[in-house]
């Protein structure tokens, strides 16, 4: 009989009749798959001034920030474009749990 794969745990693995063999004896021994916080944020803001004569409050910049480090992704956008880009970046950077597919039939 095999033992749990978690270091320091010597519990026997539960028997399985089908599927892949178990690696861990219980959910508490299984490593967490939760995303680690990275401190990475998506920011949408106005620039200090406009080089093309448009009012600065009508121009938007999308940037990624981690602490003091900033990477500007896009400049000179209108609000709808800046907002859509920020949402797409958030979706990319924020992992979501996979949805289980229900088999019909």
Radius of gyration: 24 Å
How many alpha or pi helices? Answer: 1
Strand residue content: 15-25%
Q: Low-confidence segments, ≥5 residues, pLDDT <50?
A: none
| Computed structural class | alpha+beta
Fraction of residues in helix: 10-25%
| SSE ordering | EEEH
Termini Cα gap: 36 Å
Q: Would you report the number of β strands? A: 3
Major sheet description: 3 strands, antiparallel
Report a brief summary of the structure.
This protein is an alpha+beta fold and 105 residues long.
Distinctive features:
single chain; about 100 residues; alpha+beta; 3 strands
Verbal overview:
- The protein is 14% helix and 20% strand.
- It is α+β, with helices and mostly antiparallel strands.
- It has two domains: 1-33, no CATH class; 41-93, no CATH class.
- A three-stranded antiparallel beta sheet has the order 1-2-3, with helices on one face.
- A hairpin with a 2-residue loop joins strand 2 (60-66) and strand 3 (69-77).
- The protein is elongated, with a radius of gyration of 24 Å.
- The mean pLDDT is 82.
Describe the SSE topology.
Layout: E1 41-45, E2 60-66, E3 69-77, H1 79-93
Antiparallel strand pairs: 1-2, 2-3
